[in-house]
């Protein structure tokens, strides 16, 4: 039924001349502002994916010479409020327009999406009809919600293969596996290499030293450490309000897994309050609260900036973040307390003794994307052409590192080394421009695993703090076998779409009430909270999920 992808790519080369974007084909001569990517590195894994046989040379218009009339596409980019960084107008956005847009008579506009207000931003734009060409999210439940709003149009995989053969070679099988919703292909994706060790929980090593405590290896030991900190007048554990991404329960599942429980309860969009794993998590939080181990007003910490400020100010001794070489949390902490020393908290330090360290395992995709339902045929083709251009190794590499000799140099191993304190035109954003190239791949990857690891240490760890990533990598080797992938339904869970937002608001009220009640009243408070939560719509979600599971609507 399908042809080999090489035949499809050859066909695309003949009919579209690959839009001048494949390496060495129709590209402009490189200038001194174009970085060369070494042959031994890559950012996307080649696959043997086959394109559908229906793809034909004359099936789609040829835009290799550009569009006759200017086409405008709008590309979303997360705005993380990096100081001095304009997400929609900078050297890189101008470079894209010059090297890609002008060549094909495409106007590439970037649309800022607040990282902390992402869902609200998108929902407002969808309602107003002003959403960008690509509607994206990292989590499937929310992507499904956008789909359920009628914001996306069905996709033709033959069209993708025609205009974006390289991109399709890398992601075609992922689209085929995960892109379907209600019998139609609705989603396309970025590739996700398996790397979990960037998320680091920092811990004050100097505080551990002051109370003579060893590094904790269970949540019980962590609580004992926090008690010692409290007794010594040092500080508390960092805690934040949980309200829009629910992965808190994994360490509390136990030492075995009931897959039916995972299918019913494990959900990024709606908290699983009545699940036994949630009960165990809340019981520990209730203990921490009543014994003064966490901030008594933790529920007011509803954004990262607040928990980060507490850590920098020395109010808390733990703080979790995606560590990057450009983070300011360490320098800010040292400015307040020059004697501060940091370590990486072991993953098992947040897991009860005897439990397996289960964790949320990402599916094979990174960013989940849909095509705006208002996009025309020409705009849709232009988006595929953009993803094809971005998938070319030399373009992707320049987006990730800038220009050789300016923003980076190459070392003897073939690794790009960022120029220290570089502040020129080709300076990348504080997260290495990831919010632009995350449309095709989730991480910087070299063909050689050892080089990828070396690259990650340089990109993720501030100079002098490489051990934070190295230690976290070691911790993850222990955790790696315990990944659990959330269920992905091939049909909309209608009751979830209808009530998820209301349940998230109710969850905040109920879980905080349970966590801050007395230890003696925990069981009664938890039972009452579960009953209210189930009556408010969660029972209907569980019932509908079970029906979908029974009918096989589960990936």
Describe the structure.
This protein is α+β, with helices and mostly antiparallel strands and 555 residues long. Helices cover 42% and strands 12% of the residues. The protein contains 19 helices and 16 strands. The protein has helices at 5-16, 91-104, 118-128, 140-148, 157-163, 165-178, 205-210, 219-231, 259-265, 276-290, 304-312, 329-336, 377-391, 393-401, 434-437, 449-460, 466-479, 494-516, 522-550; strands at residues 2-3, 51-52, 71-79, 106-114, 134-137, 180-181, 184-185, 188-191, 199-204, 318-322, 342-344, 359-360, 365-371, 408-410, 416-418, 483-484. A 3-stranded antiparallel β-sheet has the order 5-13-8. The protein has a 3-stranded antiparallel β-sheet with strand order 10-9-11. Strand 3 (71-79), helix 2 and strand 4 form a beta-alpha-beta unit. Helix 5 (157-163) runs antiparallel to helix 6, helix 10 (276-290) packs parallel to helix 18 and helix 18 packs antiparallel against helix 19. Mean pLDDT is 89; it is low at 1-57.
């Amino acid at each position: 039924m399908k042809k080999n992808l090489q035949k499809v790519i050859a066909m695309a080369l003949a009919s579209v001349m690959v839009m001048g974007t494949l390496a060495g084909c129709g590209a402009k001569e490189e200038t001194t502002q174009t970085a060369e990517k070494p042959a031994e590195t890559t950012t996307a894994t080649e696959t043997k994916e086959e394109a559908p046989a229906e793809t034909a040379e004359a099936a789609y218009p040829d835009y290799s010479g550009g569009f006759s009339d200017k086409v405008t596409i709008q590309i979303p980019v997360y705005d993380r409020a990096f100081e001095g960084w304009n997400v929609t107008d900078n050297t890189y956005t101008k470079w894209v327009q010059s090297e890609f847009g002008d060549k094909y008579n495409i106007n590439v506009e970037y649309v800022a999406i607040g990282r902390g207000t992402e869902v609200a931003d998108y929902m407002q734009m969808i309602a107003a009809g002003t959403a960008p060409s690509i509607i994206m999210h990292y989590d499937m439940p929310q992507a499904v919600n956008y789909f359920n709003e009628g914001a996306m149009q069905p996709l033709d995989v033959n069209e993708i293969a025609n205009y974006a053969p390289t991109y399709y070679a890398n992601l075609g099988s992922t689209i085929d596996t995960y892109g379907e919703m209600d019998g139609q292909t609705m989603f396309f994706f970025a590739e996700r290499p398996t790397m979990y060790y960037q998320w680091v929980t920092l811990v004050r090593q100097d505080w551990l030293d002051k109370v003579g405590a060893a590094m904790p290896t269970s949540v019980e030991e962590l609580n004992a450490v926090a008690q010692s900190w409290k007794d010594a007048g040092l500080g508390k554990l960092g805690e934040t309000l949980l309200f829009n991404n629910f992965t808190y329960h994994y360490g509390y599942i136990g030492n075995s897994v009931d897959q039916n429980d995972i299918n019913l309860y494990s959900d990024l969009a709606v908290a699983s309050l009545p699940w036994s794993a949630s009960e165990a998590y809340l019981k520990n939080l209730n203990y921490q609260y009543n014994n003064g181990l966490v901030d008594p007003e933790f529920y007011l910490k509803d954004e990262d900036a607040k928990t980060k400020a507490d850590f920098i100010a020395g109010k808390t001794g733990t703080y979790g973040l995606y560590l990057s070489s450009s983070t300011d949390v360490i320098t800010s902490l040292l400015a307040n307390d020059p004697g501060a020393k940091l370590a990486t908290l072991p993953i098992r330090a947040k897991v009860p003794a005897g439990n397996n360290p289960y964790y949320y395992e990402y599916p094979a995709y990174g960013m989940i994307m849909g095509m705006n339902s208002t996009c025309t045929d020409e705009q849709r083709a232009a988006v595929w052409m953009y993803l094809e251009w971005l998938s070319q190794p030399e373009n992707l590499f320049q987006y990730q590192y800038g220009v050789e000799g300016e923003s980076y140099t190459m070392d003897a191993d073939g690794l790009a080394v960022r120029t220290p304190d570089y502040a020129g035109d080709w300076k990348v954003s504080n997260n290495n421009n990831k919010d632009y190239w995350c449309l095709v791949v989730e991480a910087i990857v070299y063909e050689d695993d050892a080089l990828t690891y070396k690259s990650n240490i340089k990109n993720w760890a501030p100079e002098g703090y490489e051990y934070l990533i190295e230690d976290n990598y070691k911790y993850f080797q222990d955790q790696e076998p315990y990944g659990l992938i959330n269920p992905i339904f091939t049909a909309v869970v209608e009751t979830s779409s209808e009530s998820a937002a209301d349940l998230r608001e109710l969850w905040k009220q109920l879980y905080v009430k349970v966590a801050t009640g007395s230890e003696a009243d925990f069981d009664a408070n938890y039972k009452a909270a579960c009953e209210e939560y189930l009556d408010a719509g969660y029972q209907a979600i569980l019932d509908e999920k079970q029906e979908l599971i029974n009918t096989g609507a589960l990936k």
